[in-house]
Amino acid sequence: MLEPVNISLESLNLMTLMPMLIAVGGGLLILIIDLIKDNLHKSLYVILTVLILLINLGVTLGLNYGASEKGFFDIMLIDGVSIISQVLILVASILFIPLALTSKRFHEYSYPEFFALFMFMIAGFQFMVSSDNLILVFLGLETASLSLYTLIAMHNRANSFEAAVKYFTMGALAAAFFTMGSAVLYGVSGSLELGQIATAIADRINEPGIMILLLGGAGLLLTSFAFKLSLFPFHTWAPDVYEGASAPLAGYMSVVPKVAAFVVSMRIFEMFIDLQILWVQNMIIFLAVITMTLANLMALVQQDVKRMLAYSSISHAGFVMVAIALATDKANTGVFLYYALFMFTNLGAFAMLWVSRHKDRIHHERFDHPYEKFSGMIKIMPMGAIVMALFMLSLAGVPPFSVFWGKIYLMSATVDAGYIWLAVVMGLNSAIAAYYYLKLIVFMFLKEPTEAVTQETTYYNVSKPLLTILGFAVFVTVGSILLVNPLIEYISVMVQASNFGI
């Protein structure tokens, strides 16, 4: 007869779970408040959500990252990468939520369910980045994805439902590939924890047939994350989903889910690269190069600014994917530096689309944000045109604006790793991307307003919450030269304090 095992609370190390518990508890609190008293003003839910996120951020920053702590039956992993990625997720969320106060044009923000689902989604992302256990990563992935599908559909337009269904279908395929890949690794190693998988693979790597299984498992997992990161050829859903989602949510989707997916990709694929399984490294480089190149070429021919920004986000994801293949501390630091700077610029650019949103498609029968809509914007909304131009120049990688520093740091890491040809390809892609970003600037500054623009009040008065967020985004975009060095130092310390579960 088995004797009962006594488990102390101290051994569970529940502090590692605290950020996720705060997010889940916050979502449940919002639902309970709505049950007790319905039809409360959305500003209450916005303020409550921001408060919960700030508490979550404080608890996350208070975690001990130096010792790569394990917790809750060793399925939680708190290290430097876990903390820095959670900080990025929470800061992006704190920037996004106040946009709900800017206008009544997007009715989904008036539903308390929107904010509850948003909190559950954040908890899912936090679980993803804070574990080296493939089951918990999968649960976090699905929790976040299922919430996000619903948030997209709540925009309640025909193309929003289409976007949600497409995203759900692609997400289901990604989940299937992730499950099959995890099953293969479990079959090879007898474990679902990356540290134990790495040890088992190192012991068995010379056995006949093992390499084929490893390549199969890595291929399945790479396919899964290619869906999530919108890498070629699994990128086709992204422009349609971004177009169907509200502009701010599309901007949010271009940053936060990708940060979480990149962290899990680091933990999994850098394990294979450390074990000298070079096929995985070569496959990631191939995917990164073809993704950034193809996405840039597709962005060149887009007629809609929102779709252009969607392809732009795909290109940026391909650019950053190079860092996973390099598997160096400098490259990993570059991932977080890139997204820390890209986050403000891209959220700002999508927020500017919100400013110019019109209920009816008066400029184009197919698109909400055609280039023509921005014609002569400098004459109608001068500050808006200047702010949007700053965001476009930053996304193009023009110095000294924020994304330039992320690009140059990643290219430096690529050269340091000995891949000079790859750094040249990254530079050429940045040059191609400059064309379609500058195209919007040409429309805003050098073209006359169209008849539809002059007859209709397309640009709305900007409310204080939106002004505050845009101002903050502009400050980071323009003043990044002052922030880069301390940011690099902080991220480097966090990355070096991590072992990626190995």
Automatic annotation (TrEMBL):
<dbReference type="GO" id="GO:0042773">
    <property type="term" value="P:ATP synthesis coupled electron transport"/>
</dbReference>
<feature type="transmembrane region" description="Helical">
    <location>
        <begin position="75"/>
        <end position="97"/>
    </location>
</feature>
<comment type="function">
    <text>NDH-1 shuttles electrons from NADH, via FMN and iron-sulfur (Fe-S) centers, to quinones in the respiratory chain. The immediate electron acceptor for the enzyme in this species is believed to be ubiquinone. Couples the redox reaction to proton translocation (for every two electrons transferred, four hydrogen ions are translocated across the cytoplasmic membrane), and thus conserves the redox energy in a proton gradient.</text>
</comment>
<feature type="transmembrane region" description="Helical">
    <location>
        <begin position="466"/>
        <end position="488"/>
    </location>
</feature>
<feature type="transmembrane region" description="Helical">
    <location>
        <begin position="279"/>
        <end position="301"/>
    </location>
</feature>
<dbReference type="GO" id="GO:0008137">
    <property type="term" value="F:NADH dehydrogenase (ubiquinone) activity"/>
</dbReference>
<feature type="transmembrane region" description="Helical">
    <location>
        <begin position="308"/>
        <end position="328"/>
    </location>
</feature>
<feature type="transmembrane region" description="Helical">
    <location>
        <begin position="12"/>
        <end position="32"/>
    </location>
</feature>
<keyword id="KW-1003">Cell membrane</keyword>
<feature type="domain" description="NADH:quinone oxidoreductase/Mrp antiporter transmembrane">
    <location>
        <begin position="131"/>
        <end position="432"/>
    </location>
</feature>
<comment type="similarity">
    <text>Belongs to the complex I subunit 2 family.</text>
</comment>
<keyword id="KW-0520">NAD</keyword>
<keyword id="KW-1133">Transmembrane helix</keyword>
<keyword id="KW-1278">Translocase</keyword>
<keyword id="KW-0813">Transport</keyword>
<feature type="transmembrane region" description="Helical">
    <location>
        <begin position="209"/>
        <end position="229"/>
    </location>
</feature>
<dbReference type="Pfam" id="PF00361">
    <property type="entry name" value="Proton_antipo_M"/>
</dbReference>
<keyword id="KW-0560">Oxidoreductase</keyword>
<keyword id="KW-0812">Transmembrane</keyword>
<feature type="transmembrane region" description="Helical">
    <location>
        <begin position="249"/>
        <end position="273"/>
    </location>
</feature>
<keyword id="KW-0472">Membrane</keyword>
<feature type="transmembrane region" description="Helical">
    <location>
        <begin position="135"/>
        <end position="155"/>
    </location>
</feature>
<protein>
    <recommendedName>
        <fullName>NADH-quinone oxidoreductase subunit N</fullName>
        <ecNumber>7.1.1.-</ecNumber>
    </recommendedName>
</protein>
<dbReference type="GO" id="GO:0050136">
    <property type="term" value="F:NADH dehydrogenase (quinone) (non-electrogenic) activity"/>
</dbReference>
<feature type="transmembrane region" description="Helical">
    <location>
        <begin position="167"/>
        <end position="189"/>
    </location>
</feature>
<feature type="transmembrane region" description="Helical">
    <location>
        <begin position="418"/>
        <end position="438"/>
    </location>
</feature>
<feature type="transmembrane region" description="Helical">
    <location>
        <begin position="44"/>
        <end position="63"/>
    </location>
</feature>
<keyword id="KW-0830">Ubiquinone</keyword>
<feature type="transmembrane region" description="Helical">
    <location>
        <begin position="334"/>
        <end position="355"/>
    </location>
</feature>
<dbReference type="GO" id="GO:0005886">
    <property type="term" value="C:plasma membrane"/>
</dbReference>
<comment type="subunit">
    <text>NDH-1 is composed of 14 different subunits. Subunits NuoA, H, J, K, L, M, N constitute the membrane sector of the complex.</text>
</comment>
<dbReference type="InterPro" id="IPR001750">
    <property type="entry name" value="ND/Mrp_TM"/>
</dbReference>
<dbReference type="GO" id="GO:0012505">
    <property type="term" value="C:endomembrane system"/>
</dbReference>
<keyword id="KW-0874">Quinone</keyword>
<dbReference type="GO" id="GO:0048038">
    <property type="term" value="F:quinone binding"/>
</dbReference>
<feature type="transmembrane region" description="Helical">
    <location>
        <begin position="376"/>
        <end position="398"/>
    </location>
</feature>
<dbReference type="InterPro" id="IPR010096">
    <property type="entry name" value="NADH-Q_OxRdtase_suN/2"/>
</dbReference>
<feature type="transmembrane region" description="Helical">
    <location>
        <begin position="109"/>
        <end position="129"/>
    </location>
</feature>
